[in-house]
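@channel sequence for tomorrow's demo:
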Amino acid sequence: MERRMPGRNFLFVPGPTNVPDRVQRAMVVAMEDHRSSKFPELSTSVLNDLKKVFKTESGQIFLFPSSGTGAWEAALTNTLSPGDRILAARFGQFSHLWIDMAQRLGYDVEVLDVEWGEGVPLGRYEEILKADKRHQFKGVLACHNETATGVTSDIAGVRRALDAAGHPALLYVDAVSSLASIDFRMDEWQVDLAVSGSQKGLMLPAGLGILGVSPKALAATAGARSKRCYFDLADMIKANASGYFPYTPPLPMLYGLRESLNMIFEETLEAIFFRHHYLAEGVRAAVLDGWKLKLCAKAPQWYSDTVSAVVVPESINGAHVIDVAFRRYNLALGAGLAKVAGRVFRIGHLGDLNELMLMGALAGAEMAMLDVGIKVAPGSGVAAASNYWRSHDPIPKRKVSREEQFYGSHSTGSIQG
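structure tokens (generated this afternoon):
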């Protein structure tokens, strides 16, 4: 008989993330008629409010019952024709998988291989686009946050490269592990197709592929000859116009999304971006200052605020750390993928979380590392993170009077003295 693991599982993979209690409760609903006159109230509200998360006024949002991979496919097939040329950089497993999809769908992809641990090579993009005088490239792919390596790329810089070349190619961006966690500006960066999913910053289970489409990209659909059916935007546009879907929508997910959007707007996007950076800096302090280990991301300019890939010593298999963390401490850490398999383990720090939740992840990872023979100083990671968070506390500190100590206080301020 398998041993029961008491307490809660500590989920610190970079997706799916923890689903808040409020969102879980919102999803426990009786089924209803998705063709009723009431249903558009829900669908229209989430589609309109998602525009605020993408930071777009001119773009249109589409929801597919799929993972983010489905939205990848929808982005490509609705705007391109077989044989169209695409420029893409490969610097992690997810940028690789999007390239692989594009090739399997029949597009001609020029792949720039970049060292894993770096991001989109802006200079090479600009050089290639400037040389493309005939504008043969129809699309440029960029992964905003490469989850496999913990690397965030400069999407504003990709837009600058396109503009410097005077190139009309569509800009496709994977924002799966950045949306609602790291600042993303669809309109300002002139992103034409922005792909995301429900299971990361939106704090939902996997099951919704989310796609933001610019007016320029919508215009491109008229000439796109790629075959598509389930992911056809034309069907979506027709049905969404009156608040419906061309097929049965995942009703509980839509109610969960409505509640997650409520939570996002209550905290505000800017506060969420600050919180993710602040929490990520504490994790990086644990890795670099406490454990004296390295991150897969090669330099601070690439550091991701949603996931950190921790490089283990050469004599250690990172998979062993992950296995011990799960079996002994009920802690789920992310595995190293493809080129970095066995060389790293990943700590996801995105979605609904705070300092003490991350302390549990850091303590468990530290114990698992010690168990498999990685020589880190016990308590060093937790101490380094604690020192960072305490010295960068965003809530003003205040003294507590004797009266408050006796009678209690409802203040949210930090306690000192």
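heads up for whoever presents: The longest helix spans residues 269-290.
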